[in-house]
Amino acid sequence: MSELFGVYIHWPFCASKCPYCDFNSHVASNIDHHAWRDAYRREIEYYASLLKGRVVTSVFFGGGTPSLMQPETTAHVLDTIAENWSVARDAEITLEANPTSVEAGKFRDFKSAGVNRVSLGVQSMRDDELKFLGRQHTAAEAIKAITIARDTFERYSFDLIYARPEQSVTDWRAELQDALRYADGHLSLYQLTIEPGTAFHTMYQRKDFEVPDEDDGGALYEATQEVMEEAGLPAYEVSNHAAAGQESLHNMTYWRYGDYVGIGPGAHGRITMNGQKQATRAHKAPDVWMGRVKENGHGSHDFEVITDDQLFEEAMMMGLRLRDGVSITGYEERFDMGRIHALEGEGLVTLNGQTLQPTVKGLQRLNGILNYLL
């Protein structure tokens, strides 16, 4: 079992719904923060009763927009975690935030609550692109929020979305250079994907806009790797770039297939009980989740035992997202070694002892590699 043990807290509320977002987020005008604190406390206590003796190495407040949470709620959640589990002295405590001026002003309060890392949803350094992406902040507000984060927290990161309509490699290189002026150790860079059920999906089907095709998307990806390598922030995962030692510990828990508890509506988890990996999944609707917590002390569906075949597939799918790759020890008989050698011949993976690693070229073609291997 990995020593990493994370706790994910889902805050489901946003000020508005972004057109590209398919996360479990909801716009609400009235939020009973006291009720949410109590519900989080009860669900944390429920999972702690099942997973005694674990040491929490990371906590991640995701959403939704967790920076809309009252800092007192954040403190209450962190206190509850510390009352029910041991927390590592160097635990990473991350809060996702939107770079609006009002929320940025709360950063010091969040630090006092126990947050030591913030992840900002900047998405673009260009005002026209922010409007297209449905963001409520300007580039200037984003820079201000990044500056406050840098001055407040030990560590910070921000996200950008690329492969936007009509985006050229030259434009993207220039935007990346602008972003690197404010980055410090970590950047998350995601290609725009059109997800079913989103406003962008409807607009895309109406042909309101086009996104770069596979060749153009590949050129943007390759330019990303080149710029970030030169800046000393190489990709350690498909979409995440960091200086050495600045990787997101919580996300590494996912990719290393460690255990993590999912708290809040729609949150997923992977936990080991009695030597068996199990999948947890909470009810998505906030009111349903709240009702179940009041009734049962938790808002989860029935746990699902992960079979040996599923365990292998999930471990490989997560581990091969990492530049460092994944150990195949114990899984050798499940692989067609001829296929691994074929991928090596194409320059897509390397097999160093028992570690299977994707190359930079392989990370760009990860879905194809996984389909071929699994």
Q: In short, what is this structure?
A:
The protein has 374 residues and is α/β, with parallel strands linked by helices. It contains 15 helices and 17 strands. Helices cover 40% and strands 24% of the residues.
The spatial strand order of the largest sheet comes to 9-10-8-7-6-5-4-1-11
Unreliable stretches, pLDDT < 50, 5 or more residues?
A: none
Number of strands: 17
User: How many helices does DSSP assign?
Assistant: 15
The second-level CATH architecture of the largest domain is: Alpha-Beta Barrel
The amount of beta strand, in percent, is: 15-25%
Enter the CATH topology name of the largest domain: TIM Barrel
Mean pLDDT across all amino acids: 93
- Category by helix and strand content: alpha/beta
Per-chain topology:
Blueprint: E1 5-11, E2 13-14, E3 26-27, H1 33-50, E4 55-63, H2 71-84, E5 86-97, H3 101-104, H4 107-113, E6 117-123, H5 127-132, H6 139-152, E7 155-162, H7 169-180, E8 186-191, H8 199-205, H9 214-230, E9 235-237, E10 240-242, H10 249-255, E11 259-263, E12 268-273, E13 276-281, H11 286-296, E14 304-305, H12 308-319, E15 326-327, H13 337-345, E16 349-352, E17 355-358, H14 360-364, H15 366-373
Parallel strand pairs: 1-4, 1-11, 2-3, 4-5, 5-6, 6-7, 7-8
Antiparallel strand pairs: 8-10, 9-10, 12-13, 13-14, 15-17, 16-17
Helix pairs in contact: 1-2, 2-4, 7-9
